[in-house]
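Re: LQZAQKY5 structure - here you go.
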Amino acid sequence: MVSIEEALNAVLKNSKKISSETKLPLENCTNAILSQDIFSPINMPPFRQSAMDGYAVNAHEHLSYSLVGEVKAGDSHQPKINSGEAIRIFTGAPVPSSANAVVIQEEVEVKNGNIFLEKFPREKQNIRPAGEQVREGELALKKGSKLTPAEIGYLASLGLENIPIYKKPAIAIVTTGNELISAGETLTYGKIYESNSKMLKSALISLGFDKISLHTVKDSYEDTYHKLKDLIAENDLVLITGGVSVGDYDFVGQALKGLETKEIFYKVNQKPGKPLFFGKNGRTLIFGLPGNPAAALTCFYMYVYPSVQKMAGYDPLLKKVIATSSSHFVKKGDRPQFLKAIYKEGKVTVLEGQSSAMLQTFTLANALVKMDGDREEIKINDSLEVFLLPV
Ligand SMILES: Nc1nc2c(c(=O)[nH]1)N[C@H]1C(S)=C(S)[C@@H](COP(=O)(O)OP(=O)(O)OC[C@H]3O[C@@H](n4cnc5c(N)ncnc54)[C@H](O)[C@@H]3O)O[C@H]1N2
Ligand code: MOO
């Protein structure tokens, strides 16, 4: 049995960023990581652009100008403006090269085809020079950048369509257990509705992963062995729930052994999730998560989350804060424990109902409190180590 710290270090050490690349249409690249430097194909803005609605002037030593034309956004003509002349111009319109300032309309009086300014304009005021953001051929965005809405918009503004990004891990979720039935089936004695696969898929989707497939295996060695063999060959990560403890019908461990999977650790000194398995088969990482749903979700956040985040090139660790306890909790046993809790503005409340089967408690939680093994109770106002869940 390993400690929580040893388990997490082993997960981080063995989870490598996926280095294979692909190209995807920009609109499908949200949260992807750029796999190559992007050099701008154009000047941005592509032309001298008016930042305001007003008048473009060819400045002279007087405050009055004669109005000689108009350019609006989208126009492509370029009127010649002589010294002492002005044109009407609008935000986003190209500023003719003969204009040297744009004066906002609020500071202009218009009378009989002439305009009168309140004060002398500054050279180039309210004109965005061509290439102000980025010049053609210049580095626009560095390899390794995460494509958040700002980057997506920026690349779109440069007219880019297909973007080189790192592939995201392909992930298989496998559920085990003859007791599991699907929604829509009649709940007969001894059966329960399967929930872990939907829960884990949802957790992965909410983190931006999309290559996720769901599978079930029956409680038999043959079925478990053959399904796992195929899934290991096709995926970067296999998440198995259930069948990892010591029951006579827990075939996952036996099948993984039969497939010559390297065990990195099995069993972590923690509650919930003691029977957590982590191993490697070729390039594929394998987690055997406990079947108990709340234990599976805790292990997801504490171990699978860092692993997939790292594979995808994201920050691997959950945000950790120190918070003041606003509740009292007495621990049973001497295992370190992750407790479902609500964190708000520096205070944390440990919830009732910490059983590893109880998902209902998780629906209320936004954090996990880590309680050391030798600590027997949490008192009001104690300082606690809190992991904030990405929910
Ligand atoms: N003699 C011992 N028994 C158990 C130990 C132990 O150390 N010695 N550990 C206990 C702990 S702690 C846990 S956690 C569980 C883990 O068991 P498994 O991972 O092998 O999971 P199962 O036995 O298959 O299932 C446990 C529980 O969860 C339900 N389950 C399973 N899969 C799903 C699913 N996809 N959706 C919803 N619910 C699921 C299953 O029906 C069981 O109720 O072992 C303890 N036993
Ligand atoms: O280790 Mo188990 O997950 O406590 O129920």
